[in-house]
Request: fold
Amino acid sequence: MPCRANAGDEWREQAPQIGRMPAQPPDGARHGRGSKKQPSMPGTSPMPPRFRCVPIPTSTAERFRRTGRDDRGNAVLRRRVDGPGFPCRHCLRMGVAGETMLLGSYDLPRPRGIYWTPSPIFVHAHACERFAATGAIAPIALDAGTVVSVRSYDAEEMCLYDLGRVCTGPEVAEPLARVLADPRAQTINLHTARPGCFLLTVQRIRSGGFELL
Reply:
């Protein structure tokens, strides 16, 4: 079922958390004769960094609403939610039946260069609270009706094809943990796999602050 915008904080209890794996014995004990390698827990990777799902800036959502123009100068379209498939890129929740959404083109901040592309996005026509949770996957990426494409890029803005994964929303925690644990990945974006639309950016969180801007 799509995550309702008025469902309060119920999603927090359901969203997979990407946390630390239990401590493992030394390699010799783990892989020695007569021992078995412990399987990974579903949705986790050994000691992945903390993270946050990053929505579009509030200034962008407000500009779409105020001017009626998107990042490409097109007139934004107004759509009433009449079924699944209306993810707001500001609050990162699915639109509820009867709500009005704005559809416009958004200029992704990263990656730049060859792999840069604008993307169509939905935002609520009314003001909504910007998603700000840390350590939890946003509702629009977890939605059972969404097929997610996990895309990552290195420091030179080149796509890391070996880390790319396509999965359903409820299965996204494991490939996301894998990308977060790979130091090559400097930009991490989630897209819808079918139409290819941008959903959100994922940032690592270090002790001194956010690794990516």
User: Anything to note?
Assistant: The helical segments are 10-14, 27-31, 58-67, 139-142, 173-180. The chain has one domain: 44-210. Residues 1-47 have pLDDT under 50 and may be disordered.
